[in-house]
Write a structure and sequence with these properties.
Structural class: alpha/beta
Number of helices: 12
Distance between the termini: 26 Å
Bound molecules: zinc ion
Strand content: 5-15%
Number of strands: 11
Strand order of the largest sheet: 6-7-8-9-10-11
Shape: globular
Low-confidence stretches: 1-18, 20-30
Order of helices and strands: HHEEEHHEHEEHEHEHEHEHEHH
Helix content: 25-40%
């Protein structure tokens, strides 16, 4: 990617960088990871050498979405078509470009057709912003499923997922979710299908949990919901090195015990709703991350903000799509997380998660 002069100067540690990004940018090059020979990050516009993505990667945001009400759900309920902050593609180009100016090099969009994600919009955003965009495939949760999920087998769904991924240059499967604390039969089938599709394509998978943070859920969400998701994906043959169990930061678990159990099984743990303080305050997320890092799991942490609310756009006075690096990373730095560890978390871990060797 060609940088403007201002971006290039900024990236070398100049005044354009926020303090947290300067920390990340200045960490020693010797710590850079080696990637598997031939590995790429499959972005919508082209395959990219992971070593060239030398800045923060946000692995779960929404640049094209209708949430919570989709077109199909509105139609079924006889309601007018819902509107979304992301309907204005020119605005999303400007906001994504602004995230790029904040240092973000690559964004994974966590939507797919059953969340009204528009692939053509994402292509325009990628081309217009200069930020690499990875698009995802899959299904969200029970209430969003198309009717034929109920009648297809897991193998048929896996076939569909692998075929669409190839045809549409999808670089991940996600977000793959569940509506409540326990997987429905259809959700279990979709998780199995996604695990099979991961095994076949090598593409990374990230999930959605129903953890409700400090809010009381009725019925309560079982603490081990994240572990149960992993059980299903692993049983279907998925490679733990390319799995991220998401929204683990929305579990009120002060010692990060569930996060640690996940990391011990080899997967990435998604602290991917940073900034969403109504579910759980960021201060609690920071404390959980410190416990997780002190237990030696830095290489298993992924950060993102699950951006899905127009109030967060810079145009509306919000922190913008890059808030993970501009607002949350500084909290970690202030809490004592070193520049080298921050770089591993924001740059190296997501590159490893996303890197795949394309099948012939
Ligand atoms: Zn989610
Ligand atoms: Zn999401």
């Amino acid at each position: 990617m060609k940088l403007t002069r201002r971006e290039a100067i900024g990236w070398l540690g100049g005044a354009a960088l926020t303090p947290a990004l300067r920390l990340v940018a200045q960490s020693p090059a010797a710590a850079r990871p080696a990637f598997e020979r031939g590995a790429v990050i499959r972005t919508l516009l082209k395959d990219v050498d992971p070593a060239s993505v030398d800045g923060p990667v946000l692995f779960h945001e929404h640049l094209s979405i209708r949430y919570p009400m989709t077109r199909a759900m509105a139609e079924a309920q006889g309601r007018p078509a819902p509107v979304s902050y992301s309907d204005d593609v020119d605005l999303m180009i400007a906001e994504t470009k602004a995230a790029g100016a904040d240092g973000v090099r690559c964004i994974v969009d966590g939507g797919h057709p059953d969340m009204d994600r528009d692939l053509e919009a994402l292509k325009r955003i990628a081309a217009g912003s200069g930020v690499h965009i990875v698009a995802s495939g899959g299904f969200y949760m029970q209430r969003n499923y198309p009717a034929d999920i109920a009648t297809k087998t897991a193998d048929q769904i896996a076939d569909d997922l692998a075929r669409d991924a190839k045809a549409q240059r999808l670089g991940a499967f996600g977000e793959i979710g569940q509506q409540g604390g326990v997987l429905t039969d259809d959700e279990r089938k979709v998780f199995t299908a996604v695990g099979k599709a991961q095994k076949r394509t090598g593409l990374p998978v990230f999930t959605h949990n129903a953890y409700s943070g400090v809010r009381v859920a009725n019925p309560p969400i079982p603490m081990d919901a994240a572990l149960k998701q992993l059980d299903v994906l692993e049983a279907a043959g998925a490679d733990v090195k390319h799995l991220a169990i998401g929204h683990v930061c929305c579990l009120d678990d002060p010692k990060a015990e569930i996060a640690q159990q996940l990391a011990k099984r080899g997967v990435f743990v998604g602290f991917d709703r940073v900034g969403i303080n109504v579910i759980i305050p960021d201060e609690k997320r920071v404390a959980m991350i410190l416990a997780f890092l002190e237990a030696g799991h830095a290489d298993h942490l992924l950060l993102s903000s699950d951006f899905a609310n127009g109030r967060g756009l810079k145009k509306n006075g919000g922190p913008g799509i890059g808030l993970t690096v501009t607002a949350f990373a500084p909290m970690l730095a202030k809490a004592g997380v070193s520049e080298a560890v921050l770089r591993r978390i924001l740059v190296d871990n997501p590159r490893r998660f996303l890197s795949v060797v394309p099948s012939a």
